[in-house]
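Project standup — Tuesday

K.O.: blocked on the structure for the chain from last sprint. Re-posting the sequence here as requested.
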Amino acid sequence: MKINTRINPKTPKKINGSVRFLVRSLGLKTTPIYFSLTQIPNTRAGYCFNNCEDYIKENGGDAIYGWMIWEDRKKGFIEAEFHVVIKKENQYLDITPRYNYEDKILFVEDNTRKSGRMDDESWYSWSNIKIVDNYVSEMAEALKIKELNHENSEVIPLYTKEKA
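H.V.: unblocked you, prediction finished:
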């Protein structure tokens, strides 16, 4: 017997009970918001920290850290991926292309966790939180993202009992 375990997460179509449970599991009280992709030249999928840092240096604005929410309702799967967007003149810009070519994301701001630049070569970040059938299967853990070069980074767990 073959069991299909392939998960195909997408942006949730609506803010449902699973999304609210995920946000509560992150310890947040903020409301998720949908953002469309703002296409900016020379941005790379998977490099939201660098994309936003470069944009802000050139154009101004503030980095807003939080979580992109993805779900595969058919599989009972939902997750949050740590992400950054830009707030400029009261407008939010999501400038990082997606590997799955989604044109919008569901984003929830998180100002409770340490985030941003750690030093010239490293960032504070967080691992994904994953929920399957309303059970938290993986909790978000503090990470250090160390840039090795323009194309490669190393993910290093930061072991701590407190929020980093």
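K.O.: great, moving the ticket to review. Residues 67 and 82 are 4 Å apart (CA to CA). The chain has a mean pLDDT of 91.
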